[in-house]
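Example record

The entry below shows one chain as it appears in the dataset: sequence first, then structure tokens.
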Amino acid sequence: MTTEYSPRLFARDSDIRALGEGLLACALPREAWTHEAHLAACLWLLSERPDIDVDAEIAAIIRRFNESVGGVNDDMQGYHDSITRAYVAGVRLFLSQTAETGLANRVNALLLSDIGRRDWPLRFYSRERLFSVPARRGFVEPDLAPLPDAPSPADERP
């Protein structure tokens, strides 16, 4: 059964930057940390914050934010490492392929793409594996297909 997917889109680049800065400063209201906000913040971090090593820091950034709004990061709720890392790979792939310019245009195109869908990681993982405690607590390799591999910026240089 296919469900209709209609993400909340962003009107301005400044809204996305404020969201990303709010995440880093633990200054967002909990209800603002939606699926769309996760992907917008990821794209912003990857494209506009070269000072942040997303692979090394994303888990701590999200865990710290979750705790700042009263959430917990345990075996059942909060930060989910495998889902996060799947989306980081997807956002990198999207950025390597998009012709969109402007932060809001890129984020909105991502949200409207297959990669932006809430069920996108299930192309690579069975539900059982993805929603397991080990997958939440640390990265586990997909069991259905490998995650996409986007070219690194060094690979794109002539």
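Notes for this example: Helices lie at 13-24, 35-48, 54-68, 81-97, 103-112, 127-130, 133-137. Residues 154-158 have pLDDT under 50 and may be disordered.
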